[in-house]
Design brief:
The chain contains 9 helices and 11 strands. With about 325 residues, the chain is an alpha/beta fold. The longest helix has 16 residues.
Length: about 325
């Protein structure tokens, strides 16, 4: 593999760089590209071999799966399912931009993005060069372009100083976001439940999110102002003692058997906590400003087929078994 850098502020080198990057992605290699937050290392999201190469470059494990960057909003429907109206409103308002949305992934897709608990984190970056590359390659798994434990790169040259020859193509387009400023991660919102909740603060402030979806829960469980007032009001209601409650004579109340996996089951709570942690944890020492996560993948035999950018995932035939999620 021969590593090549392109100065994409030049029209000629930009065109050459995009063409080379497209070939590298098709060959299951990794490339470094700018985004609207920091520089990212990118691989074909549908190639376990490519994502494993991404991991080898960074030195990360599959417990921290990478978000997937997409070129247009309607690609979301091809990769995710159970998309609520509120989640769609956020995507329509803030994409392209610094918002990552966690969804349930389409079960008919046979990709492997690590220990995702059947979810996928999607984002459409607000960067022209990134979108141009995504348009010709389709969805890409992207992690910040740095070695584990090092600062996220704000230029392709910074990325090359860490990742060296492990990357096929470096697309240099100047500092991200702006030279002299600190990188700001994307805001991550969990959209897998009925109520949206922020699981990582970032580029899009909670107030802006609530302008679109007033019911969204903030980081750490911060409720919307109206709900918080109701909660405070309920907290002031005096407790009722047993003496204040009249006894009901001969009231035979049948015992309710405990369900091994109920709504309050520790199993369910643990799974939800783990799912959120996968997309937001930076416990391995990476810079807190790192805007994406990474994973290691054990390549299965053969590569799965991928839909074109924006194309909906194929539905399972009536008697066709849908490939099980390889991560759950």
């Amino acid at each position: 593999m021969s590593t090549t850098s392109y100065n994409c502020t030049s029209d000629d080198q930009r065109a050459e760089g995009l063409a080379h990057a497209q070939k590298a992605i098709a060959a299951k290699q990794v490339v470094v590209m700018p985004t609207d937050t920091v520089y990212g290392i990118a691989a074909d999201a549908f190639s376990p071999q490519a994502v494993a190469t991404l991991l080898a470059a960074k030195g990360r494990g599959r417990s921290m799966p990478p978000p997937v960057l997409i070129p247009r909003l309607n690609t979301m429907d091809g990769l995710a399912t159970d998309i609520t109206d509120d989640a769609r409103k956020l995507a329509e308002q803030f994409w392209p931009g610094g918002l990552t949305l966690i969804f349930h992934s389409q079960p008919s897709l046979t990709w492997d993005l690590g220990d995702t608990m059947g979810t996928v984190a999607l984002r459409m970056p607000d960067d022209k060069l990134a979108l141009d590359l995504l348009t010709i390659t389709g969805p890409l798994a992207v992690s910040s372009a740095n070695r584990t434990g090092q600062a996220a790169a704000q230029s392709a040259s910074e990325a090359r100083s860490q990742l060296a020859e492990s990357v096929e193509v470096y697309l240099e387009a100047g500092f991200r976001p702006i030279e002299g400023t600190d990188p700001l991660p994307s805001t991550i919102v969990d959209a897998t439940g009925g109520i949206l909740r922020v699981v990582r603060a970032g580029a899009i402030a909670l107030e802006r999110l609530r302008d679109v979806v007033p019911s969204i829960v903030g980081l750490g469980g911060e409720l919307p102002e109206k709900d918080e007032q109701v909660a405070l009001a309920n907290a002031d209601v005096p407790a009722v003692s047993e003496a204040d409650v009249p006894a009901v004579a001969d009231a035979a109340v049948p015992a309710v058997p405990e369900s091994p996996v109920g709504l309050d089951s520790p199993v369910k709570l643990d799974e939800a906590a783990v799912m959120t942690t996968q997309w937001t944890s930076a416990s391995d020492g990476d810079s807190p400003a790192e805007h994406e996560q990474s994973l290691a993948v054990q390549p299965p035999a053969g590569e799965p087929q991928r839909p074109a950018a924006g194309e909906a995932a194929p539905a399972a035939l009536p008697n066709q078994a849908v490939a099980p999620d390889q991560t759950t």
